[in-house]
Amino acid sequence: RLRPGRWGYVDTLSVAPAARGGGVGRALMAVAHEELLRPGSLGTFLFYHPANPLSPVFWHRQGYRPLWTMWIRRPAWS
Q1: What is the mean pLDDT of the chain?
Q2: Which CATH number fits domain 6-61: 3.10.129.10, 3.50.50.60, 3.30.450.20, 3.40.630.30?
Q3: What does pTM read for this prediction?
């Protein structure tokens, strides 16, 4: 659970497939972290879709660790 306070939130990070692996995502997050991790900030958090096999690897390399897992149940329509 996140402590109350000032947190930065990463909503979306997208890199074109042709540009992946060249450090673009890392560079974008370096700029985002400069803004989000100013004095007084407790950290940053984000959500990602676990079905995307690139997401957990990328976010782990950026220093993020799992905090919780969200489960949903959708109604079964006949």
Answers
A1: 90
A2: 3.40.630.30
A3: 0.77
